[in-house]
Amino acid sequence: MKRTNWFKDAVIYQIYPRSFKDSNHDGFGDIQGIISKLDYLKELGINCVWLSPIYDSPQEDNGYDISNYRDIYKPFGTLEDAKQLINELHKRGIRLVMDLVVNHTSSEHKWFQSVIKDNNSPYKDYYIIRKGKNNGKKPPNNWSGFFGEGAWEKLPGSEDEYYLHLFAKGQPDLNWENPKLRSEIKDMLKFWLDLGVDGFRCDVITLISKKQDFKSRFPKIALTGKDAYVNGPRLHEYLHELYKDVYVNYDTMTVGETVLSTLKQARLLVEPEREELDMVFNFDHTDIDNYFGVKYFYRKFSLRRLKKCVNHWQKGLYQRGWNSLFIENHDQRRSVGRFGTVEEDINSSKCLATTYFLLQGTPFIYQGQEIGMTNAHFSSIEETRDVELANISKVIEKIPFFRRGMKNVALDVSRDNARTPMCWDDSEYAGFSDVEPWIRVNPNKDQINVEKSLKEENSLFHFYQKLIKFRKEEPLVKEGEFHLLSKGSPHIFAYERIGEEEKLVIVSNFSNKERKYKKLKKWDYDDLVFSNYEENSYVHLKPFETRVYKIKK
Ligand code: TEU
After folding, report:
1. For a designed S-S bond to 314, which of 127, 343, 482, 513 qualifies (C-beta 3.0 to 4.6 A apart)?
2. Coil, strand, or helix at residue 105?
3. 370-386: average pLDDT
4. Residue located nearest, by CA, to atom 1 of ligand 1
């Protein structure tokens, strides 16, 4: 089958299923709930959905711990529901990208269970299992994982062996060195593609190959051993193998969650002739407001640093690969109040929306982002549910220096901020469910909900709708070359998207004060395609004003 690169024309909406819409009164989102909201997504204008994991799972990490790749977690529904979802999406011209979590399984997966029951199980080599040091008293090395703990756990039933888990204890890492395991994964990919799934978002895909020495590394503040387990020696080989044995036969798309990858590494993953992935998510921009890539070490946001980072990736992948564009997902706190925006002024969210949406690449919207949902403002850990926060909190508790300053930071940056139920209306449980949900509803549901956004002409929802329409109709958004204009300004983010005869100019004022921007003299009112203000002055930008011009060169 010919691959059509449809992802270059896609606007992708991420659904976090447990929090999207409950249809069966258990306070937990489900597939039928999603189906009931597809017309809403159609109205927004998106043409692809990325669905976070719905596979069978004990839900230690909300489904990123899969116990059966070919079945659905019962509270979400059945395989029949999944087929119906694919069908209903396709009927509306919307594609479906599933989450692919193959760096690890759940410890409840039958492969891992078989190893626990029988130390000689043929599945033992599906995992990374090593003898501990000192006759098993100490783990095989000093590596630490992503949730703040050591990366090894005693293998149940064994005296001296440990298994590697770069995430929670219930997420043992798979051993990609084993060709049988790779073959199982390829079969599973075909299973979903044959059901009609259009592509995959590949969870922590840069971790699948590990250096095989398994030696201790120089201790770090976080992620000791990462030079051995991120971008490992056989990563490209494995990805190319999946491509040539599976993807090449389908009109599919893959986007890799490439944690800790530099531009140079990303190029190797997405240059089309290398046949590995179609796109990557890089996290440089979400690390702008922290130190050392650790979100608990909060750092004041700087627009200049953001521009530098955007410029780096836009220029760096131009005509070599394809960018993915996002400001939110289920692991990040909400963008409202972040990246130079403020909760009190919806115009600031419009500025941010315009600025990221019209860059080169495929834009993603995370559920609730389109109506401006905010962080949940948790006041205690009891209100949260995330295993990451639970584990990190234990680490913070142990170290007095951290305990003092970091408890509140941890709540502020908790992933649960973006995982509260989607606010559909202002009823008790925000129209998400009619019983108490698995995590509390955002207290500002009366002000920020879908029903209200649909009614108000100037809502963020309608602004996104316009942006999506504009992106679809304007080839320059897809193809134009990126050129940064406002490098030095601490408040203004302006850039061009240059084509052969025309160009787009995007100008946003990321401050709550009027700002003079002299370059505005160059462009004519008549060329203004849209803005978040009805009237625009000559060389002054109003607080959080954003404008898009289309200009003949
Ligand atoms: O996230 C990978 C990842 O790097 C995150 O753990 C990230 O470092 C952290 O969330 C920042 O706060 C993916 C999934 O998106 C995440 O939900 C899973 O928990 C994780 O993989 C394990 O599958």
Report:
1. 482
2. coil
3. 95
4. 204
